[in-house]
Inverse folding.
């Protein structure tokens, strides 16, 4: 149990275009999901907290107009990178709260902006 | 403030025990976690410990918590080549937001 999926697993896009990444909890409902960003050989940086039915909470320094988050259902959160630029290239990982103490992570999405 | 630190690398021989250490600064942490990340993959929850516990054992994994020194360790018994990965400790201040350590790259050689 407690499986989180992400789609796509990798994506290449041109500078200036937008990319949507999906995060799904497959066998449980998640009112709260998180989006992280990870640079090569670095730790995870929390970008935002996605709450079902309400606006996302962004961490300091994360542009909410650039990284649009929608948590439309209890099993799906989406992250849209708008007007992507090469510096947005990164590994994006989502996670979902399965219980009060357990947070499960998706396999990640590698975004490359050319 | 919130700061979680780990040593960057650990190299062990197959069959030996591995001990990965972590220090944190926020004494109000409620839960502390260990996650494993293999190359190009997401994070796998290995185990977690409540802050009022000293030790937790789960098969080959033993977690020790010294709350006074704010020190957490993960011991892997009989380390195998499949254990090679990056290990992250993380603390939760509330029940949701996680603060991750810098990660320890474990390399297991034959």
């Amino acid at each position: 149990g407690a499986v989180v999926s992400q789609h796509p697993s990798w994506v290449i896009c041109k500078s200036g275009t937008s990319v949507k990444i999906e995060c799904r909890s497959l066998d449980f409902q998640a009112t709260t999901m998180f989006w992280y960003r990870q640079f090569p050989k670095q730790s995870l940086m929390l970008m935002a907290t996605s709450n079902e039915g309400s606006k996302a909470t962004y961490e300091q320094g994360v542009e909410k107009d650039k990284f649009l988050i929608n948590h439309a259902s209890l099993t799906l959160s989406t992250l849209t990178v708008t007007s992507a630029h090469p510096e947005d290239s990164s590994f994006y990982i989502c996670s979902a709260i399965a219980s009060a103490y357990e947070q499960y992570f998706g396999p990640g999405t590698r975004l490359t902006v050319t | 403030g919130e700061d979680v630190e780990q040593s960057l690398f650990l190299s062990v021989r197959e069959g030996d025990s591995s001990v990965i250490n972590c220090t944190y600064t926020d004494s109000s942490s409620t839960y502390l976690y260990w996650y494993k990340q293999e190359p190009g993959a997401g994070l796998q929850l290995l185990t977690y410990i409540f802050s009022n516990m000293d030790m937790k054992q789960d098969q080959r994994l033993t977690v020790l918590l010294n709350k006074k020194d704010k020190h957490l360790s993960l011991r892997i018994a009989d380390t195998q080549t499949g254990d090679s990965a990056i290990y992250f400790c993380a603390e939760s201040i509330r029940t949701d937001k996680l603060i991750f350590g810098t990660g320890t790259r474990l390399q297991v050689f034959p």
About this structure: The mean pLDDT of chain A is 92. The longest strand of chain A covers residues 44-51. Chain A touches chain B through 22 residues (CB under 8 Å). The two ends of chain A are 37 Å apart (CA to CA).
